[in-house]
Each structure stands twice: as C-alpha cells, then as structure tokens.
Design brief:
Chains A, B: InterPro entries: ADH_Fe/GldA (IPR001670), ADH_Fe_C (IPR056798), ADH_Fe_CS (IPR018211), BDH-like (IPR044731). 2 copies of one chain form a homodimer. Chain A is globular and about 65 Å long. In chain A, helix 13 (about 345-360) packs antiparallel against helix 14. The relative contact order of chain A is 0.11. The longest helix of chain A is centred in the middle third of the chain and has 23 residues, at about 210-230. In chain A, the strands form 2 sheets. In chain A, strands 1-8-5-4-2-3 form a 6-stranded parallel sheet, with helices on both faces. In chain A, strands 6-7 form a two-stranded antiparallel ribbon. In chain A, a hairpin with a 4-residue loop joins strand 6 and strand 7 (about 155-160). Chain A contains 14 helices and 8 strands. The first copy, chain A, folds into 2 domains: about 10-175, 3-Layer(aba) Sandwich (Rossmann fold); about 180-380, Dehydroquinate synthase-like, alpha domain (Up-down Bundle), CATH 1.20.1090.10. By secondary structure, chain A is an alpha/beta fold. At the A-B interface, strand 1, helix 7 and helix 8 of A face strand 1, helix 7 and helix 8 of B.
C-alpha cells in the first residue's frame, strides 16, 4: 500500500427531510448566494424546500449554471456575489452547480484573472464557504474539493482541486432525485461507475480493502442503477445510488493506490469539442481504453470480472475480453451508448481530440503515463 | 436505508515515516502531554521517533495508562496536565491510551466529578485537542469520538462519546506494529472483526453498499489477520490490518443501518469482573450470541456465510450453523479462545455478569432491545 494523507471534512446530511438542518450550519448573519442550474429545482419542489428552510435568511439567487459549467457564466455569478457582499454559497443542483460554486468561491477574493486558477494552478485565499444540496448523484462533488470548468470561448475544459472549497455540508435527500430525467439518472450511474474504475483498474499494490470497497460500489451501482430507471420512486434504490456516487469520489477508495483518470481526460476533450454529456464520453472511452491497455491492466481486469461480474474463465484472454464486454454491456443497459459513431462522430473527431489533448499537455496519461497521443488516437479508433 | 448525519474530522497520516508530519499540526506554542502506556514505545523506537519529531516542543510525559484504562490513573494524568498547563494531548499507543486521552481531554476543564461524564452523560466544554500515534490496530479509537474507561474501585467499565474529543490527526505507521506481542495482534484483529459485525449482523434495511463495505473489511481481516501472526514484518499485511481496523469503527459502515453492540456490552462486564482482554470477551460472547439470536439475525447470518466465508448450503439451518462455526473457527485461528471455560470461568461468572448488567442498566440490549437479563444468561450459558 502507498502512503497517504486523508481527511474528508464534509458533513453528510443523508435522507428525507434533511434540508431542515441547513440553517443551523450557516454563518452568523448569513448572506447566501443560492446557486442553481436550469431551473428544474423550481419545478420539483427543491427550490421551495430550500427557501422555506432559509426563511429569514438573506438570500441572493443566481440561476442558469449549465451542465459543464462555463467560465463565462460563473464569472457573472462572481460579479453578483460581490455586488451583494455574500458570505456563503449554497449550491443546489448536481455536480455542475457544485463545481461551479467552488470556482465562484475561489474567484471571489482572487486578485487578477481567475481563469489562472484553472490553467496555471494559481493559488487563492479565503474562499467563500460552501454548502451543497445534491439533486443529481454522479460526480461526488458534494464531498470533494474538485471542480471542472469549461471556457466556452476556447473549448477548454479544465479542473482545479482544493480542500478549501470542499462543501462544509451536503444534503443528500434521495427524494430530490425522483424527478430526474432518465438520461441524467443514466449519466450519473455511469459517471460514478467510471470514477471507481479510475481508482481501481490499474495494477495491484496489495491493498485488498481498497479493492473490496471499490468492488462494493461497482456491485451496488450494477444492481441499483437499472432499478433507478425502472422504479424511479423507489426510495431505497435512489438512496443506494446516491450514497454510492458520493463514496465513489470522496477520496476514500483512492487512498494508498495508483490512479488512472485517462478516461476522464480524453472524455473531457470530447465534451469540450462536441458537447457530449460527460458520462457519454466516459462510456465511449473506457471500454476502448481497457482493450488498448489490457496488458498493463491484466490482473485488475481479471479481478474485476471475477468479483464484480462473476465471470470465471480459465483462459486469461477470454476472461479479460468478457470483462470488458460486461462493462460495455452495463453502460448500454444504462442506456448510454458506447461508440463514437452512436453520436455521429467519425475519424475527424479523433484528430480533433488528439490536437486538444496536445494543446492541454495531456500527452502522458494513465497510471503508467504511457498513454501518449498515438495511444489516445488508437483508443479512440477502437471506439469508433 | 435509515437517515444519518456523518462527518469524520480526523486527518489520517498513513504509512512509513508519517510521524514527521505531526509537528506542523500542533497548536502555536504547543505544550504537549505525551500520554502512553506500559512503556513498550520506549523499547520499539516509537518513543524516540516521537521525541525526535517533537524536538523543540515543550513535552510533558505521562506513562502508565493500562489496557482498559482506569479512571484512577487517568485522573492522575489530568492532575499532571493541569499542573503543566498543557494545550494538546498526543496519545501514543493503542485504543486504551487514545481512549484515555479523550477522557483526560474532557475532564481537563470539567467542573465537578469527571466520573459523571461516564455515568451521567454530563456535558463538558472546551476539551483539549488530541492527536494520536497508533501502535496497535484494533479499536478504531484513533478516528472516532468513543472512549471506554474502567473504575477500578467499583469494577465499572463505562463509555462516553463526543466528536469534540475525536483526534484531529492520527499517525498510522504499519511499521510501529511489527514488535507487537502476538496476543495483541490477535486481540486487535478480533476486536476489529467484531466491530464490523456489531454494525452489520442485524437485519436487512436495503443498504447494500454498507453491507459490501462491512463484508470487505471482514474479508480483509480474515485473509490478512493470520498473516500478521505468521509474517510479523510484512509491511503490506500490517498496513492492511491497520487500515481495516480504522475503517471498522470510524463511523462509516454503521451509517444508515441498525446496530447491535450487545456483544460489547456483555463483554465489558467480563473484563470489568475478571480482567479478561477485551477481545477475549468478544470471542467468547459473539458465537454464543449469534446462536441465541439466530432467528432474528437469520438473513444477515446467511449473507455473511455466503459472501464472507463462501458457505453455500441449501438448508437454511445448516447455512446458519456453519457460518457461526466459521466465525468461531476464525477467532480460534487467531489464537483467541472462545469459551468461558477456556479462561477458567464457570457458571458463577454468568450470575456475576448478569448482576453487573442489571446494575448498569443493560437490560434491553441488541438491535431489537430483546436481549434481557435472562437472554444474556442464556448466551453466556451457551459459551461455557
């Protein structure tokens, strides 16, 4: 096992009715920026519940944060926040809104061009504190310090990470997910699944507990994910998906083990260029990447097949191929298509993605740093 | 799944050499009470490493905290801490030392008789901050707020719990466990195993991820525990046992599910009366308790057998009996005896334990509250 330092500071408020807990966790004389997305929270009652919990608190609203939140929109939110001198951000939404809140929090007191936080790793101080009310289980953003922001002007999707912008609390009420469109449910399950894979499917370092935890999340997503589509108002199913998505990327399972993240890095460019849903890009890239890296990942792919998919082939090559197929089949069962051509993309997309990877310095991806531009092109070729 | 609120504030510093990180985490102008046990840390080099890391820091030593730390000794530590006006406690040892540190921290500013914290749930304020350097993986005390203290004068073993006394950081260096006596290794593995069981082996509430995590810890302890005895200087084995013991009782796996803890409550009285090791009492009580409660726990016992011990019997009764036997065999394989008579205790012990349970108000134990004094006597009878 590798050395690690781990702490997760987010207080999880899990279950029906937990919104009522948020007010006691705001600062004295709170002036809250309520950040949200396209307005679905106004239709499904979450907005009303939040405003009811915040009765008597000074609230400034900023709606319209997009999926794959843009720098351009978030900078408007920074302006609004400054105009009203807020001292807290309550992000109500999915990963995009929470990621956006982290960027707004970091940019609030930043001197200079906040885009530098994303592209130059510029340091920032005194970020606004954040709370999250999660409506879409997927990214784990509610209890980590990660944020991904896209600059529309240049089609650049970039990330930053800091424990100082991690939410202080996160309300996880499974009922808030009942009204999600099926496509978002599918995307969320696939996203969480791939988060686990990025921290698990590398090479063995004798860390059996981390493996068991990762496999446990995968198993839960495989049994509960399809039920979330077929039984949208099954509370326990929604709760299990929600808790799995949070645990998939709250830092725990990745401690002391190598990590990959190449599927995400390649996928980000597909989103930046063609506006594919984040999860769609992961579903395209991962099976092809597993195939291209099947030698480096042989041991863990076999273990994944055996423990998670109950595949027990004596022949190693068959075991590996069947496991890759099982992952792909799971994405398809979640109604997320797994080939570039399913999204009307062809070979032209490959060169465009590779050019973007080069521009963004993503030339040595994966746990061994051996996914160079040629390998990335090969992976995308396998995904046609 | 049940509602829950969860946060774990302890920063885990895991791996070789992490002791060097502690100084940066002390308060300004730290005056540290270094709390430790019987002196093994002076023989195995941990004391020297701690003092070297603390070079230049004002340190007051208090050694001699016993296994099952006593109120009497800890009150002496409180006196020492007050005399020297310390502002931080560094607990270097196993669960007993860390539990003791929590009590000293709580008692430090307490007005009145600090025993009331344990027997009356008296509230306390402004506890001293604590850091932990773990030398014995077992109790999980390094990243939870629980403390168990025994009053020698009255043979009372009592607990209190508060997030305010949870360690701010915990150094988990697997090398510090190389020199542990085999009996302490055995006890630690059994203790951690039973911590998981207390949070897992109740009744299903459709919380599959919690189940998978619990099963993952049990599986890891079963494969790594015996190796910790046979290969005492195998770093990865020690690391895996250490991380498993921490995860077993840092609050995570018990969120949203019913919990039992009756094995611990009955076991505590055996320790208080006969000075048995904590883990010995658990190894005695658990198999008998599983047998006595096999109807209430039927579903989870079968699942435990299937998923953790690979027992797959068509007949439910056989499945259950074989699973209980497998748990008992695991304890015996860890060289911890499982019968009262193995410790020269007979029926007289049963009535004494039951009398103590009654005195301490432990008359409705277990996840259903159905373990009354009669049932407790029956369980202990099965363990003769």
């Amino acid at each position: 096992m590798l050395n690690f330092v781990f702490k997760n500071q987010t207080e999880i408020l899990f279950g029906k009715g937990q919104m009522s807990e948020i007010t006691s966790r705001l600062p004295e004389q709170a002036k809250v920026l309520l950040l949200f997305g396209g307005g679905s929270i106004k239709k499904n009652g979450v907005y009303d519940q939040a405003m009811s919990a915040l009765a008597g608190v000074d609230v400034i609203e900023f709606g319209g944060v997009e999926p794959n939140p843009t720098y351009e929109t978030l900078m408007q939110a920074v302006t609004t926040a400054k105009e009203h001198d807020v001292n807290f951000i309550l992000a109500v939404g999915g990963g995009s809104v929470i990621d956006g809140a982290k960027f707004v929090a970091a940019a609030y007191h930043f001197d200079g061009e906040p885009w530098d936080i994303l592209v130059k790793g510029a340091s920032f101080s005194d970020p606004l504190p954040i709370g999250a009310v999660l409506t879409l289980p997927a990214t784990g953003s509610e209890s980590n310090g990660n944020s991904v922001v896209t600059k529309k002007a240049t089609s650049q999707k970039r990330a930053f990470s800091s424990p100082t912008v991690q939410p202080q609390f996160a309300v996880l009420d499974p009922e808030y997910t009942y009204s999600l469109p099926p496509r978002q449910v599918s995307n969320g399950v696939v996203d969480a699944f791939v988060h686990v894979i990025e921290q698990y499917l590398t090479y063995p370092v004798n860390a059996p507990l981390q493996d068991r935890f990762a496999e446990g999340i995968l198993q839960t997503l495989i049994t509960e994910g399809p039920k979330a589509l077929s039984e949208p108002e099954n509370y326990d199913v929604r709760a299990n998906v929600m808790w799995s998505a949070t645990m998939a990327l709250n830092g725990l399972i990745g401690q002391g083990v190598p990590q990959d993240w190449s599927t995400h890095m390649i996928g980000h460019e597909l989103t930046a260029l063609y506006n594919l849903d984040h999860a769609q890009t992961l579903a395209i890239v991962l099976p092809a990447l597993m195939y291209a890296q099947k030698e480096q990942k042989a041991e863990k792919i076999q273990q994944l097949g055996k423990r998670v998919f109950d595949i027990n082939e004596a022949d190693t090559a068959v075991q590996i191929d069947k496991t890759i197929k099982a992952v792909q089949d799971f994405f398809e069962a979640m109604l997320v298509k797994t080939r570039l051509t399913d999204y009307d993309l062809d070979e032209k997309a490959i060169s465009a993605v590779v050019a973007n990877l080069e521009k963004n310095g993503m030339t040595a991806l994966g746990e061994h740093g051996d996914i160079d531009l040629e390998k990335a092109a090969q992976i995308l070729g396998l995904a046609l």
